[in-house]
Structure formats: C-alpha cells, structure tokens
Specification:
Layout lengths: L10 H27 L3 E2 L5 E2 L11 E6 L5 E6 L4 H10 L3 E9 L11 E10 L3 H19 L4 E3 L2 E3 L6 E4 H9 L15 H7 L10 H13 L9 E7 L15 E9 L2 E8 L4 H19 L7 H9 L3 E7 H9 L14
Parallel strand pairs: 1-5, 9-10
Antiparallel strand pairs: 2-4, 3-4, 5-6, 6-13, 7-8, 10-11, 11-12, 12-13
Helix pairs in contact: 1-3, 1-9, 2-8, 3-9, 4-6, 5-6, 7-8
Amino acid sequence: MPPSETPWFDPGRHADRRPFLLARNRIVAAIRRWFADRDFIEVDCGALQVSPGNETHLHGFATALILPDGTAERRYLHTSPEFACKKLLAAGETRIFDIAHVYRNRERTLTHSPEFTMLEWYRVGADFAEVVEDSLALVRLASEQAGTRSFQWRGRSVDPLAEAEWLTVAEAFRRYAGVDLLATLDAAGQADRDGLARQSQLRIAADDSWSDIFSRLLSEEVEPNLGNGRVTVLHDYPVVEAALARVSPRDPRVAERFELYACGVELANGFGELTDPAEQRRRFEADMEAKQRIYGERYPIDEELLQALAMMPPASGVALGLDRLVMLAAGATRIDQVLWTPVG
C-alpha cells in the first residue's frame, strides 16, 4: 500500500481520521475494563528479544545491542509478546494480557502495517474453547463501543452480535476448495505433498511444499468466504500447521489452533498452548529450514523460551489484531486510518 501523498499530520487528513481514533480509544479502554473485571493482570512485555519468532513466513526487524565494551549482539523487535508472556506463565502468573506494539517486516497492505498493536492474553488451566469465547466477547464489546450492529469491509458485512459459525479447517477446504485435506495427512499428522497437489486447482511449482500449497489454498480459496454475515471460528488446523499449539486429544492429525474471521479479515489466532519443549524445538527447526529454503535466512531459537515451556502449566492463549478489530468496528477502510501515528 503506497503512502498517502498527504502526511498523516495534515490537519484535514487528521480531522477525517479523528472519529476512528476516538473510537479506538473507547474500545481500548473497554477492553482494559473487560479484562480487569475477570481478574486478569495487564503486563508490559519488552520489545527487544533474542528471536522475533520462528514461523516460516514471519519477518522481523533486526538491530544490534551494543554492550559497554563496544561489542555487539544481534537482537530483534518482537513480532508478538508471546514468548515473553509464556515466560511469565512459567514464573507463576495465571491470567495475563498485553496490549503491545509489535513489528513485522514485509507486511504493508490495507490490513497490514509494519508496526501495529497486538492484544494478547493467556488463561492457565483453560480449554482453548474458553479463549475462543473470550475472542467473540471482545468482538461484541468493540461493536458496542463503536455503536454499530454491522461490520462492513470491501463489500462484505458481518453482524458481530450474531452467533458465530464454527468451521473446521477440513470442512472449509472441502466446501470452498474442493479438497479432502485430512486425506493428505497420515495418522501421525505427516503430510502428503503430492496428494494435496493432485487435488489442488492452483498452479503448483515443483519446489512447493505441502505447507506452501496449503497456505495458497487458504488465502486464495478459503479465506475470502469466511466471516460473511457472521463471525467465523476456523479451528482444528492440521498439526503440520500447529505453530505453538498442542495436538488435539480427539485427532492426532489436527491441533488446538483457531483463527477468527470477520468480512474475510483474520482478527485473531489462538492456541491450546504446547508445553513440550522437545516438540517445540522440532517445529522451530523445521520452520527455520523452510525459511532458509524460501528466503535465504533463519532466526535463532530462544532457548529460554524452551526452558520456560518445561515449567509452564497447561494454558490457552490468543493474539488479536487490535487495529483490525477497531478498523471493522469503526467503519474504517484501511488500517492506517485507526493508527494515531501511522508508519511513513
């Protein structure tokens, strides 16, 4: 998305954006009250980290930490407060939330900004269905604070107060892409790349992996159909796409991961959290191998996070794109309209 020719501090442009910004303030204040009423503690996680995250398509901002003797150590701005929050859970916190500025490179569209605000929260001992309900409650709260019964974006609309649609990833792929996704996964969740390629109507490159094909089908065939009329809870992701989620006790081919959609826009991503450090290391290493293959770079693994996972109690958590939620609730059409000081 090219920057506007008029700077954001132009009085006329600011006057146009100000109603959205005031709606943002109301929504943020209400979110803080909502969590306080449920005995959550607000935390403030530091942005400088040894790793920005280890997902294949996640791109961080790198910097250098200069020590007093002049030597330098590589650091990154966090792409999410997740690693720090999990260390706090290991330390003994049980209900926490953070409204954090986070930073992601290679992301700039109508719904992406290189710097944006992530609302992240965790419940120790909670089933992941509980944090799904939290997410739906926050969508309703945002609509109430904005004074609307309808989210609208690019020709789509959602009633945020209507009962949500619950749809498994396998059901969504069958319905919208004509793909039997579970048929490409064995009993242990291992993926059959060629089996998925044969079912896809997309043009597939010889070096595309199962995850590459899955991601394209999701973005091109499935996501545009989600969150139309009512919010969609897309859940039970294939375990190969589990990220930091634990495997489902009902089916080892899928994980306790969900995403929330409204008007085709992804609002939230949540997990029943994985607490097995060996399995988490294996996933991180596999993702970094893929990142090296695709982008020619890799990020370090946060060893302290793996130590913390071994100490962390069972928990569920969610990362919600606060700016996107405000954008839909306030009736904005671009994410920069709801950022007080957009990235130039």
